[in-house]
Amino acid sequence: MHTKIIFFSILTLVFIVNSQAQNHFFGIKAGYTKSMPSKPDNQVNFDGDQITIEEGVKRFKGLDGFQIGIYAFIDVGSDFLHLDFTPHYSRYGFQDKKDFIYDYVDFDLGVSNYNSAVPSKLVYGFGFTPSLILKSEQIENINDFDLKAYLSLGYRFYKDFVISTQLKYGVLEIVPESKITNLQFSLNLNIPIIKIEKT
């Protein structure tokens, strides 16, 4: 129930702000993802031919993944910053003797200068990401909700295309009472599709 309340609260906020906005930017976001889950425990990690020991933390091998979705950059009365809303499908995973793969619908909500009216090649953004689990392989008792904070940094080039990196930290456990949290990295391309201006 709490996940539905959070989800609809976010949508309501976006639509309220959207009704007051002057400029709307819509496009597609697609990219590569990598998980870096860890457990605060002093353990040996067997990863193929490699054996690593890290005091105070066990890091699992992150699996390659992908994400794809749409984005909306919404004017909030600032020439420099816009409100970002980016729902997208994401696949993450890790390996510990076998593969653990999980698919999410992520809802990035934050601010950035990706479509700033102020000329800038270097772009950045920050915010948080409520996530709903869609499917999990090998893990039955996985949390169906995650909340992540993110930072992004990128470069704006031809006609507001942006290539960027994004780092997300999950503040909740992947599996209840496991103490396994996740750090996620992605490399993305933002492709602008349409700009809507209100007169």
Summarize it.
By secondary structure, the chain is mainly beta. It has one helix at residues 2-20, and strands at residues 23-39, 44-47, 50-53, 58-59, 61-62, 64-75, 82-95, 99-112, 122-137, 145-156, 162-170, 181-197.
Integer-rounded radius of gyration: 18 Å
The dominant shape is elongated
Count of discrete domains:
1
CATH architecture: Beta Barrel
Largest sheet: 8 strands, antiparallel, barrel
Counted beta strands: 12
Unreliable stretches: none
Helices, by number, come to 1
The fraction of residues in strands falls at: over 45%
Query: What is the C-level CATH assignment?
Result: Mainly Beta
Mean pLDDT: 79
Order of adjacent strands in the largest pleated sheet:
1-6-7-8-9-10-11-12
Explain this structure to me?
This protein is mainly β. It has one domain (1-197): Porin (Beta Barrel), CATH 2.40.160.20. It is built from 1 helix and 12 strands. An 8-stranded antiparallel barrel has the order 1-6-7-8-9-10-11-12. A two-stranded antiparallel ribbon has the order 2-3. β9 (122-137) and β10 (145-156) form a beta hairpin. The chain is elongated, with a radius of gyration of 18 Å.
